[in-house]
Predict the 3D structure of the following.
Amino acid sequence: MLLQKTDKARLELSPGVRSLSLRERSLLLLADGKPLSDLQAMYNGVGAQIVENLMRQGYLSGPSTLPAADPPAAAASTVQAPSVQRPEPGESLRSQAGARMYLFDTCERLFARRDPALAQQFREALRAAKDRESMLDVGEAMLEEVALAAGNERAATLRERLEQLLPRTPAQGSFASTQPADLD
């Protein structure tokens, strides 16, 4: 069986995105068109567990149709992701927790070395933010600092990515204009 990368995997492998371990990322890089058995044998056999985790998390998928010979036996002999109806690829990545982690990651990448005190302030503010609105207020303050340090274009790119990670609200507005009534 040949495994294929999903849109989620391609996003993970794009520059600046690092949510998986080095082994998981390297296995993803090799996944397209490589036999399942080869991937499972990687890392002295630990590859089987990594493949299973990546499939369960939606980074890898099998062929669209399995051999019709003996479906129960085929399912038992291969690692398959559970058959669940998944949302559109763009929607599956949206979560408030994911947006929060993105803000923490942005803080670390952009401020931890340049201005440790400012990074610590943002970390504490993000930890203290208990709802969507307060988290987004911290995010906006962070993006204002990014605009000052790296320019408006860089801040706009980060803002756009943050908006892609946030769950949609009934108003479908930008994250900066979210009203308290829209809280999750």
About this structure: Residues 127 and 135 are 9 Å apart (CA to CA). DSSP finds ten helices and two strands in the chain. The longest strand covers residues 4-5. Strands lie at 4-5, 60-61.
